[in-house]
Amino acid sequence: MPRGAARSEAARAAILASVASLVDRVGYDAVTIEGIAAAAGVGKQTIYRWYPSKSAIIAEALVEGRLLGEDFTIPDTGDPVADIAAWLEHVLRFLASRNHSALLSSLIAASVDSPEIGLRISQRLGLGGPTIAERVRQATDAGELASPLSPDQIDQLIVGIIMMRALGRNPYVEGEARQLVGALLDSSTRADSRP
C-alpha cells in the first residue's frame, strides 16, 4: 500500500475513533466537526473531503461497530419466544449499563437528521428488518406461534420498547424482558397449545 494511502487510512480510523469517543462522552449534539478534527489530529478539510456531515461520520462509525459495538444477534434455539426475550434482555441490560442509554439517545437524535443513522442503529441492534419480524414470521408459518399481531407490528412494538427505554434511562428489572415479550408472544398463543 502506498504511504499516502496508509496515512489516509490512519486518518480515517482516527476520525472514526474520535467521533465514537466524543459521542460517548458528550453526546451527539455537542460533537462538532472542529472537535472531531482536533481529537483525531487532522484538519477539518480532511474530514470534509471524506464526509459531507457529522451524521455521515456517525453512520460509518456505526457500520464499523465503533458505536453500539456489542453483538446483538438474536439467538436461535428453536424457541422464538425465549430467543427474542433473551435478545431483548441483552439489549435492555446494555442500555442500563454505564451511559449506553445516553449514547443511544444521542444516536436517536442524530437519526432525525439522517435516516441512514436510524437504519444503522437498527442493523447494529438486530432490529427492524427483517430479524425480529422474520423470526416471528417463520415461527408463525411453522405453527409455533399464533399471534393476533402481524410480525411487523411485533417488530415495531419491540423497537418502541427499546427506544422508550433509551430515552427514559430506566434501570433494568430482572425478568422484565420475558414479561414484555410474553405480553406480545405469550406461550399460550402458540398454535400447538391451542385446542
Could you walk me through the main structural features you see in this protein, from its secondary elements to its overall organization?
- This protein is mainly alpha-helical.
- It has 2 domains: 3-63, Homeodomain-like (Arc Repressor Mutant, subunit A); 80-193, Tetracycline Repressor, domain 2, CATH 1.10.357.
- 66% of the residues lie in helices and 0% in strands.
- Helix 6 (100-113) crosses helix 9 (151-168).
- The protein is elongated, with a radius of gyration of 20 Å.
- It starts with a helix and ends in an 11-residue tail after the last helix.
- Mean pLDDT is 80; it is low at 1-6 and 187-195.
Q: How big a fraction of the residues is strand? A: under 5%
Helix content: 55-70%
Radius of gyration: 20 Å
Order of helices and strands: HHHHHHHHHH
Q: Please summarize the sheet with the most strands.
A: none
N-C termini distance: 67 Å
Discrete helix count = 10
Number of strands: 0
Compute the number of structural domains: 2
Top CATH class of the largest domain: Mainly Alpha
Q: Which architecture name of the largest domain does CATH use?
A: Orthogonal Bundle
User: Could you name the CATH topology of the largest domain?
Assistant: Tetracycline Repressor, domain 2
Principal-axes geometry comes out as elongated
Determine the mean pLDDT. Answer: 80
- Unreliable residue stretches: 1-6, 187-195
Estimated structural class? mainly alpha
Keywords: DNA-binding, Transcription, Transcription regulation
Domain HTH tetR-type: 9-69
DNA-binding region: 32-51
InterPro entries: Homeodomain-like_sf, HTH-type_TetR-like_transc_reg, HTH_TetR, Tet_transcr_reg_TetR-rel_C_sf, TetR_C
